[in-house]
Design a protein that fits this description.
elongated, Rossmann fold, seven-stranded parallel β-sheet, five-stranded mixed β-sheet, 2 domains
Length: 257
C-alpha cells in the first residue's frame, strides 16, 4: 500500500515519515507515497512532497491525517473523490465536521480515532465496562494534561473517554458532560461526567478517569511518553484498512476490542 502523509512536517506527520522510511514496515507492505505541507519553500526532501493535497491523494492508496479540522474536512472530500482510504487522528472535530467524515465513509473506508495508541483504546474499553457496572451513584471525573502548544480542550481523547463512559450508562455524552466549573456551582449533579484540562510544558498526553463513590475510588489512566506510539498506531490502522468495505471505523475496530 502506498501511504501518503498529510501535514508531513507536523509533530506526528514527521514521525510517520520517519517510521515509513525506517524499513520497519516494508515487510507489512507499506511504502511512502509522499507527503503534503502548506509550506514547502526551501524543500530539500528526497521524497515526493507537495502543497497540492489532491496530488497526494492521486498517488496514494491510503492517506494518514493528523492535521487541523479544516484540513481534515478537505481531506475527507478528496478521499471520497479519489476513492482513497483515510486514517484520521485529528482532534477538535465538531459534530458537523464528523458528519463530513460520515458522508465520505459511505464511499471509502475511514478509520477515525481521537487517539491511535493501543493503550488508550484498551482504556476506552475498560472505562465503558466500568461505567456499565458502576451505576450513577458513582461520580465520573476525567482529567487530562497536554503540552502548552495544544489548541483544543478538553482533548479529543478525554472526550472519547467521556463518550465511552456515557455509552456504558446507555446515554450520550451531550446529556451528561460538565465541561466547566467556576464560581458558586452548587452541589455536583448526580450522573454528570466532569472534565478538567491542564496545559503546560512538553507533556505528550496524560489521561485519568476517576469513579468516585462513598468510601472508595477507582482510577483508570494512561500516560504517553513518546509521540511515536501515535504514528505506529496509525500505520497499524493503514495495514488493517486494506480491502475493507466503505464505512467509518475506530481503532477499537482495528484492535478488535
Amino acid at each position: 500500500m502506498k501511504v501518503g502523509i498529510a501535514g508531513c512536517n507536523g509533530r506526528v506527520g514527521s514521525l510517520l515519515i520517519e517510521e515509513l522510511r525506517s524499513g520497519e514496515w516494508d515487510e507489512q507492505g507499506l511504502i511512502l507515497a509522499g507527503g503534503s505541507s502548506r509550506n514547502i519553500s526551501g524543500n530539500n526532501h528526497d521524497y515526493f512532497i507537495t502543497d497540492n493535497e489532491e496530488e497526494l491523494f492521486k498517488r496514494s492508496d491510503v492517506v494518514i491525517d493528523f492535521t487541523r479540522p479544516e484540513g481534515t474536512i478537505n481531506h475527507a472530500r478528496l478521499a471520497k473523490e479519489h476513492k482513497t482510504s483515510l486514517i484520521v487522528g485529528t482532534t477538535g472535530l465538531s459534530a458537523q465536521d464528523e458528519e463530513h467524515l460520515k458522508d465520505a465513509a459511505r464511499h471509502v473506508p475511514i478509520v477515525y480515532a481521537a487517539n491511535m495508541s493501543v493503550g488508550v483504546n484498551i482504556l476506552l474499553a475498560l472505562v465503558e465496562q466500568a461505567a456499565k457496572r458502576l451505576k450513577d451513584d458513582w461520580d465520573i471525573e476525567i482529567f487530562e494534561t497536554h503540552h502548552k502548544h495544544k489548541v483544543d480542550a478538553p482533548s479529543g481523547t478525554a472526550i472519547a473517554l467521556g463518550k465511552a463512559a456515557a455509552a456504558g450508562r446507555g446515554n450520550n455524552l451531550d446529556d451528561l458532560a460538565d465541561y466547566a466549573r467556576h464560581g458558586h456551582t452548587g452541589a455536583r449533579e448526580k450522573g454528570k461526567i466532569g472534565f478538567t484540562a491542564a496545559r503546560g510544558g512538553d507533556v505528550v498526553g496524560e489521561h485519568n478517569v476517576m469513579f468516585l463513590s462513598e468510601g472508595e475510588r477507582l482510577e483508570l489512566g494512561h500516560k504517553a511518553t513518546n509521540r511515536s506510539l501515535f504514528a505506529k498506531g496509525a500505520l497499524r490502522a493503514a495495514i488493517w484498512i486494506k480491502d475493507k468495505e466503505p464505512g467509518l471505523y475506530s481503532m477499537r475496530d482495528v484492535l478488535d476490542i
